[in-house]
Amino acid sequence: MSVAQFDRLFIGGEWVAPHAAGRIASIDPSTEHVWAEVAAADAADVEDAVSAARAAMAGPWGRTAPTERGATIARFADLIRRDAARLAEIESRDNGKPLRDTLGEVQRAADWLTFFAGAADKVNGEQIPYRPDALAYTRLEPVGVVAAILPWNSPISLASWKLGPGLAAGNAMILKPAEQTPASMLALAALVEEAGFPAGVVNVLPGDGMVGAALSAHPGVAKVSFTGSHETAIRIMRSASANLKRCSFECGGKSPFIVFADADFDKALSVATHSAFRSTGQSCSMASRIFVERPLYERFAAGLAERAQRIRPGLPFDPKTHIGPQTSAEQRDKTEGYIALGLEGGARLLAGGGRPEGLPNGYFVQPTVFADADNRSPLAQEEIFGPVTAVMPFDGEEEAIALANDTRYGLVGGLWTRDVSRAHRVAARIESGLVSVNTFRPVHFMLPYGGYKMSGIGRENGFDAMREYMETKTVVVDLSDAIPPDPFA
Asked: Which residues on adjacent β-strands are paired with residue 127?
């Protein structure tokens, strides 16, 4: 099989050779073979990209009216829809997700961009009744150059979460894809060029962690938007402190999925299965801690294990595949390490725990269900990012809330009950940025999304996301002709 070559970076509206000769090998996680080689940026390329982005802000993009910005973003979204099949194939080769999933993600990315295209001219400042003889108002202005550092689990989807509000607010963007999945952002850059964005508005710099570190520390970058581990976010924040640049982070979770005894059992079980194992568990908002009220506990745990055993791991381009491999050998090994910790810690293994049969190559792990885990154990406290969930019993509302909040994360939470009063009581007390009742993780471009505690800072999606990419400027105009008294007379 030939190896695809992506030998140029996208900087300043042009396809340029990197300053150094480095390359990144993208490994197809379903075969463990290199399928693409991608040019790697270095510090000199970071300088070029920041200069190009700043020039775009000072030039045509900075003078573009919001409605016109929105029209360009809308063209970009339409091009993504047109090329969705090709983009999804690249994404599947990069990160191993089934084509069905990546195609859906690419199409939703276009929807995200369409929403923000329409939002570009609908976020306004306000007039403030400061004094009768003065006009006071606020202007919302772009922060400047934004570095968007992307994860490997859903690159195109999460790029749209950052590009949409960032571009709609009038910023210039530098995309830094994860080292494991470098190719899809360059394919996306070709559509940026075709959409007609001015040169330098969107730049793409594949590379290792050095590129992200250089962007985080660069004085010409006004904001960093990052999705990934909280450990990396802490390093970014330290680097960003040099010029007090803005930061927004989405840093993972250990999401509680609470099932009360009066819940719709079949619906809760079906959603729990999907929420625990979709994307091979490689999502920040998995149902990775499932708390079930004791009268339903054994039945629910057994039902989840039976459903997990029906999930078909397989190759990304096989239409029968339910979930693909882990994206890297490192991530597979990490997941298997947590399975071993669960067994050592006395949790009861109900399903999975190993590698699937019939798949000799690839970074595959069976969907795995543990019961009777200790909520303070690594299995229940640390983000695994693999197809592993832990089911634990609780007795009563107060214990459910205490268990749910007993974590350093707070991204997503959910509860299942037919009691309307309980639904609102518990939702108010769960320490998560998104709480769902009788569903789980309803992510949508209109709904703000972000975390409490170590799950992050700031919000993505909705009009709240636009504010993350804008500065508020207050303007006061004195309308009076009166000469104020001289305090030094």
From this structure: 137
- pLDDT at position 215 over 90: yes
Strand partners, 410: 452
* From 89, 250, 293, 460, the catalytic residue: 250
pLDDT range class, residue 283, cuts 50, 70, 90: very high
Amino acid making up residue 203: N
Extract the tokens encoding 86: 């090709």
Strands 412-416 and 409-410: unpaired
Element (H, E) at 289: strand 289-293
Domain boundaries, the chain: 4-251+455-474, 256-437
Reduce the secondary structure of 343-384 to three states and give it as a string: HHCCCEEEECCCCCCCCCCCCCCCCEEEECCCCCCHHHHCCC
Q: Does the active-site annotation cover 344?
A: no
Q: Could you tell me the two tokens for 257?
A: 């999925």
Topology of domain 4-251+455-474 in CATH is Aldehyde Dehydrogenase; Chain A, domain 1 (3.40.605)
Same fold, 4-251+455-474 and 256-437: no
Q: Enter the tokens of residue 283.
A: 């999502």
Answer whether residue 259 shows pLDDT above 80.
Answer: yes
What is the band of 21 on the pLDDT scale with cuts at 50, 70, 90? confident
Q: pTM for the whole thing?
A: 0.96
Domain 256-437 has CATH 3.30.420.10: no
pLDDT in tens, 60-85: 999 999 999 999 999 999 999 999 99
Q: What secondary structure does DSSP assign to 88-99, as a single string?
A: HHHHHHHH---H
Within 8 A by CB and 6+ apart from 354, the residues are 365, 366
CA dihedral 340, 344, 349, 353 (to 10 degrees): 10
Residue 1 scores a pLDDT above 80: no
CB 379 within 8 A of CB 370: yes
